[in-house]
Amino acid sequence: MEAMMGSLATEKEWRKGPWTGEEDKLLSEYVCFNGEGRWSSVAQCTGLKRNGKSCRLRWVNYLRPGLKRGQLTPIEVGIIIELHAIFGNKWSTIAKYLPGRTDNDIKNYWRTHFEKSGKSKHKKLEMQKAKVLKQLKQKQQPQEYDVKSIKSHEETKNETKSYETENNKQKEVDFMCPTMEHQYIVPSMHEGFSSTWPDTVLGDDGSWFSLWDFDDEPQCSADYVNQFSESVVPNQATFGVGEDSMQNHDKIFYFDDI
DNA sequence: AACAGGAGCAACCGCCCCCTA
DNA sequence: GTAGGGGGCGGTTGCTCCTGT
């Protein structure tokens, strides 16, 4: 706990650039014990010379459990294309429909594969989109995912935003804690897709937990912190942490315990 | 084998919103 | 009512790796 005694770094001392394994470990330990949020106090509590934003970004985009690595599947790409047509560059909104993918992942993918296409490659882009959508359609018959439902869902959310504000900001909980309507949308979106919604579990507190396997990586049955000590790649730890659970680390459970 | 260009991705930047004092 | 701080989000940058020549 020597690191916990670290002093607060001044702004001039903030470290930048790639994160080291030790930094990841410190940040993960902090989130494990304190939950997400209070990013500005990470440096004070852990001795990390990283500012709050950097810590949050590292956690959200790389360390948070349940993140999926690797290439997007055609289904995911199809969803991105459809949702981008609806929401535009609202990456975080799109990311909510692709569990395990971060807004950064989606943004990067879009920029790499579509945005960089440019005018001269517009035709190629359209062909690529058409190809993906075709694959999507084939995989999803007879159940097609209903983008209109998603759209109306988002519109409904917007309409109720004032209500949510009055109730102390509900933080998109309506998506993470699906109503009957959403439960209708979700499974059909990923018909034939082996690693997304069908693999999620609705927790007692209403949060969605991922059950993705990470290929041949070991299942997390030991203490999360110990996993880091054993140099196990952090984002491949397969334990579930719901939004509420993150606020109370004593609620964290492991899938082996389910 | 060496080099150039492109792809992919992690991380930073800056703006905006919301909450709180 | 408002100012300041924290956090979220979209845009951008830069590094690494891969592939083609």
From TrEMBL:
MF terms in GO: DNA-binding transcription factor activity; sequence-specific DNA binding
Bias kind Basic and acidic residues: ranges: 145-168
GO biological process annotation, one example: regulation of DNA-templated transcription
Domain HTH myb-type residue range list: 11-63, 64-118
SUPFAM superfamilies: Homeodomain-like
SMART domains, alphabetized: SANT
Keywords: DNA-binding, Nucleus, Repeat, Transcription, Transcription regulation
Superkingdom, natural source: Eukaryota
Pfam families in alphabetical order: Myb_DNA-binding (PF00249)
Localization, UniProt: Nucleus
Keyword flag Cytoplasm: no
Domain Myb-like: 11-63, 64-114
Keyword Repeat: yes
Classification via InterPro entries: EOBI/EOBII-like_plant, Homeodomain-like_sf, Myb_dom, SANT/Myb
GO cellular component: nucleus
Region: Disordered, residue numbers: 137-168
Protein name per Swiss-Prot or TrEMBL: MYB transcription factor
Gene: LOC100817474
